[in-house]
Specification:
Length: 207
Amino acid sequence: MMPTRHRARHLARPAFVLVVLAASPGCASNDPSPGGQTTIPMLVGADISALERIEQAGGVFHAGGQPGDAVAILRAKSSNIFRLRLFVNPNKANVQVNDLAYTVRMARRIKLAGARLLLDLHYSDTWADPGHQSTPEAWTRLDFDALEQRIETWSASVISQLAQANATPDIVQVGNEIDTHRAGAPAARNGSSTTWANTACRTISSG
């Protein structure tokens, strides 16, 4: 159970220093390669998905012994990107609060601090990982073609609403730890390994 009061925390350094995005093998892109060289800055930051909920429970963050805004503290420590997870319809238990309204608020906060936003779309009502890629409850009766379309329309709606809030993501992580499947896609539901590659590519492309 989430405590009603959190100990004060000292933020001395960012939680991660490298963002790695990987596509499934065999998922080809039709986009042409950009011409010339592009300089990409080192991305240094943290996943702050639970921050607002922690603050609501009384969590206080410190730097140099002084309380302050957690995002501002991390920005002062050279963080330039923050990750937010997004669930479809979380139950709001403990820190499973990351619905779109919550995420828009947090995304606005990140952008107002002058940082980049990495949005992690879980395509689930709760955490997704290699052993748990559960279809959102509202999508469980969809066949694969309908699920593919729902992923596409939901993803587009999410980005559109963030853009309207002046909080467009700089990077979108399509799925979370999708080693075998995403959003409970049928290939994973029936245990078929022969159709996994095609299923993965179609759901990733739709996202």
